[in-house]
Structure formats: C-alpha cells, structure tokens
Amino acid sequence: MSLLEIRNLSVRFGDADAPPVVDALDLSVEQGEVLAIVGESGSGKSVTMLALMGLIDPPGRITAECLQFAGQDLLRLHGRQRRRLIGKELAMIFQDPMTALNPSYTVGYQIEEVLHQHMNLKGQAARRRALDLLERVEIPAAASRLNAYPHQLSGGMNQRVAIAMAIAAEPRLLIADEPTTALDVTIQAQIMDLLLDLQRDQGMALILITHDLAVVAETAQRVCVMYAGQVVETGRVPDLFDAPTHPYTEALLASIP
Ligand code: ADP
Ligand code: MG
C-alpha cells in the first residue's frame, strides 16, 4: 500500500453549487519517493496539501473516497491520534517561513516544543537536539541562534528553522509548498539542496510543489501536473517530459528556454 493514497478528493468553498477548487483528485505517494507537483497559480496545489494537513476550516468542505496516510484514514482521525500523525509523521513547510514560526518565541524554544510534543524530549536533551537540528539545516553560528527570535534572522535562515521544525519529529512525508519562492534567488538552490539532502538521509518521502521544471527534472521520480483543480497527468519524470499528453503540460514544457 502507498504511504499516501488520495482518491476522489474534492474541496469546495462558498455555495453548494460553487465549482470545487479541487475536483475529484487522485494522487499517491510511495515511501521515500520525491513527487513533484506543478501547475499554474490557483490550480489547487496548496488547497490539496492543506486538506491533507487538516487545515481547511469551514466553510471549506472536503469530500473524499479515500484519504489515507500510513494506513490511517485522515478524515476519521481526531484529537490525540490525529495530532500524533499530523505534525509528526506528516509535516509541511510553506512558501512563507513565518506560516510555521511564531514571532513571539525564540527559534530554540519552538524547535524544543516540537521535540517535547512529538519526541518526548525535555530540558537539556531537547536543547541539545534542537542545536543538532539547527546545525543539520546549516544555520551558521547555530548555538547562538537558539536564542534568536525570527525577526532577527533572514528569510532564508527562518526557512531553515522551519525545515528544522518540520524534520524534528522525523516525518515519513514532508510536504514542501514552493519552499524557495519567497526567498532571494541566491539562496534558493541552497535551500533546495538542503531539502533533498535531508530527504535522502532520512529516507522520507517528499512532495515538492514548485514552478521550477529544472528542479523537477533533477530531483523528482514522478511529477503530477495540476490544472483547474484536477490532476491532468502524472508520470515518471523522463516519460512525462519527453511525451506530455495534456496541452497545459506541453505549454509548460515549451516555456522553458
Ligand atoms: P495554487 O495551485 O496556486 O496553490 P490554491 O490551492 O492556493 O492554488 O487555490 C486554488 C483555488 O482555491 C484558488 O482559486 C483560490 O482562490 C481558492 N481558494 C483557496 N483558499 C480559499 C479559501 N480559503 N476560500 C475560498 N477560496 C479559496
Ligand atoms: Mg499555492
């Protein structure tokens, strides 16, 4: 069985007769694989991921025939069971690192909170592990950054902190939703390299939402193309790049200089 299995997922906002923004979507992710998702702005990529993370609040409505992660039905999990899975086994980083970070707490504290909640680490043990994680995400002078607040760090460093928080609980699947779009061009490649290093080291699966087809070609095993709320094609990267079947994919590939 796949690590993540989505069948017939729809998400609607507004009136009952409003068109769904995610429309009968099927998608699966295997253990340890990198799946890229591409698609123009507004095609439903983020909403799909937010639905998985349980982050669509009413009046948004989700329906699905199957929304299973690690053998568990995400729509039927509640309370502690749900928190044990989401945030631990299934983690997400966002375009804006501040979506994951709280401006009022030091980065050390925020990483330690994840370690406490999901890994049962406290005190010195949590502190040491938080420092390990900051070093793992290659934050310079990591020890002194533990006491820094997000506003004292650059966007790129905050994204590294967000990544450290996301991997602190050793997730089996990390969702990265345009993780470098908001960052300086000069550091985009460094952050992407870091993510892929971590993916390989930890053997975790990665869903990578990106507009960068060069990154897709280099890193992903499979790619899924979304258009107007639907998956219009999915396939192995070389196959799909060599022989796209949907007009949007053709146009996308033709746009590469
Ligand atoms: P993208 O592929 O760029 O990530 P999104 O998943 O963010 O696209 O959005 C898909 C569609 O859903 C867009 O038309 C967007 O305006 C709409 N949408 C997203 N969130 C909401 C919301 N909370 N309420 C109403 N419409 C929303
Ligand atoms: Mg988006």
- Which structural class is indicated by helix and strand composition? alpha/beta
What's the arrangement of strands in the largest beta sheet? 7-8-9-3-10-11
Q: Give the overall shape.
A: globular
The total of helices stands at 10
First and last CA, distance: 39 Å
Oligomer type: single chain
Rg is 18 Å
Measured by DSSP, the beta-strand proportion falls in 15-25%
Low-confidence stretches: none
Bound molecules: adenosine-5'-diphosphate, magnesium ion
Biggest beta-sheet profile: 6 strands, mixed
Order of helices and strands: EEEHEEEHEHHHHEHEHEEHH
What is the number of E strands? 11
Average pLDDT value?
Answer: 95
State the helical fraction: 25-40%
Keywords: ATP-binding, Cell membrane, Membrane, Nucleotide-binding, Transport
Subcellular location: Cell inner membrane
EC number: 7.4.2.9
Family: Belongs to the ABC transporter superfamily.
What would you note in describing this structure?
It catalyses: a dipeptide(out) + ATP + H2O = a dipeptide(in) + ADP + phosphate + H(+). The chain is of the alpha/beta class. It contains 10 helices and 11 strands. It has helices at 45-52, 79-85, 107-119, 123-136, 142-145, 155-168, 185-202, 213-219, 237-242, 247-254, and strands spanning 4-12, 22-29, 34-39, 61-63, 66-69, 72-73, 90-93, 173-177, 205-209, 222-227, 230-236. A 6-stranded mixed sheet has the order 7-8-9-3-10-11, sandwiched between helices. Strand 5 and strand 6 (72-73) form a beta hairpin. Helix 3 runs parallel beside helix 6. The radius of gyration is 18 Å and the shape is globular. The model has no long low-confidence stretch (mean pLDDT 95). It binds adenosine-5'-diphosphate (ADP) and magnesium ion. Magnesium ion binds next to helix 1.
